[in-house]
Structures are given as C-alpha cells and as structure tokens.
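Side project, low priority. Logging it here so it doesn't get lost.
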Amino acid sequence: MNQKIIALKAELAKAVVGQEALIEGLLIGLLSDGHILVEGVPGLAKTTTINALSQALGLDSKRIQFTPDLLPSDIIGAEIYNPQNHSFSIKKGPLFTHLLLADEINRAPAKVQSALLEVMQERQVTIGDETFKLEPPFLVMATQNPIEQEGVYTLPEAQLDRFMMKLVVTHNDENEELEIMRKVANKSFETVQAVLNIEELHILQTEMAAIHIDPELEKYIVQLISATRDPEKFGLEEVSTCMMYGASPRASIDLYKAAKAKAFLRGNDFVSPADIGYVIHDVLRHRIVLSYEARAKGVTSDEIISKIVEMIAIP
C-alpha cells in the first residue's frame, strides 16, 4: 500500500475509532472526485471523520446543518446590495470549500437540495450573472438519519444519482465503544497532523487513474449495471418485479472509478473482480428504485444487488 495512504489512515485513527467502511468510502470518493451519502443514526463520528480528514490533508472544510427553513442562498451565497455606492457584491456561501459536510440533507426541501446539483456535477456555482469554479478537490459528504420520520424529505432521484456511493454506517462494537468512552471522557484523543498536501493528493489521484483494468472486467461492470435495467436478459426474472427503474450510466462510471480506487487502497496496480464486489453495493444501493411490491415484501436493494452479482458470471 502507498506509504502516503498508510500515513493518512494512521492520522485518521487518532480521531476516529473503528468506522473503517466510512473512512475507506471517503478516501475512495476523494481519490475519484466523487461525493458520498452516509446513512446512520446520530453519534457515529460522521462529523468527526470529515473534520479529521480535512486536518490530515490540510484542506478547508465547512458544515451546513440542513433545516426545513433553509434557503438556496444560505448555501450557495447571494448578491448583496450596497446602498452607499448603489452596487452589488457577491457574498459566497459555505459551498466554497474543499470538504463540505451536508448534515441531515433530507431535512431540507427540494429547492435547497437542488441547489447542490450544479456544484456536485459541474464543480461550479452560479450567483446572479456570475459563475464561479470551485478549487479542486471538492467533496460533499451528505448525511441522513434513517430513523427520522417527521420533517424530512425524500431526496430527488436526480440528486441521489450525483452521489458516487451511499454508505450505511452502523454502531461500533463493544471494544471500540469502550475505547471511545475512555478517550472522550479523559480527553485523550491525539491531535491530527497534516500528512498530505493538495499537490500530493493530485499525484495520488493520477496514480489511481493509472490502475489497470482488464477489458473483460470493463464488460463485466457494464453487464452488472445492465442487469438492473433489463434483468430478464440475464435470467433474473425473480427480481424483475422488484425494480421500477435501474441504475443510470453514472453508475457504470462510478463503479469503474470506485473499483480502481479500491484496488489502489489495497495496494494493487490492477483491478480484480473482488474490488468490484467490495464496492458494488455502495455504488448501486441508492440508484435502484424499488417497486411497490418489493417494498411491501420488505425486499431491499442490497438483496437485489447480491442476487445480480450471484447470477452474472465473473470473467
């Protein structure tokens, strides 16, 4: 494994106990220029993790607490009128950062959520007549609380598709929680030091992009995505009634990039079928629209993905 990645993970471990899946997902998103949606109950170190990542990389980070009364201008910025000289000036919002934590994104109405679409896809923000490019890297980590039922909104499909991966974060085990309890109570967490800069991060991104992937595995990725749209073609009649819509072409792109990033983080210079298997649930679980029949039966998108992986032959 790359020594810089080892050093980065070591620094993150100073502030975050356990939660390897969350850390790994954020690193994949950072290396691949993707955004991450995190689902989990409060208190699972989601905020702590992105703060530690920004410190370890020497990057700016900002946090937006999404609420039902939030306005688009609260996150992207606005034109401010100056009555003294009768002119307008631009007040940039918290989107202008490297790492953005969009906390409880499903608490904001669709108008505010849609304000994120341009910046997530195009890496630019339009305020009035001016368009501003964001400095790379730019990563959005959005969180949503799965147990809240009141005062929350369903994320639009177009926005869900902009997230490279959806991570489901669970509680730490008992030993990890014991360590967390002691460290927090005794204030014994170590200070996270910067071990990478932006230039070194760009080098890692270039190295990751150069990871080899066999043409047969590229076809395998496309088949996996196609199976979510046309399951009967691949002998998956039993799940065809469970899906209303399959994954978009963005899923193929993101699965391709995520598999490369996973191989890179494992210290390999080529993608194996295992790398695809490691990330496919995270890449697809938020992109498959379940039918009413599936929801009534309690079928989950993860179960459908597992069935697709099981039925399609690995090259």
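Brief comment: The chain is about 50% helix and 15% strand.
Revisit when time allows.
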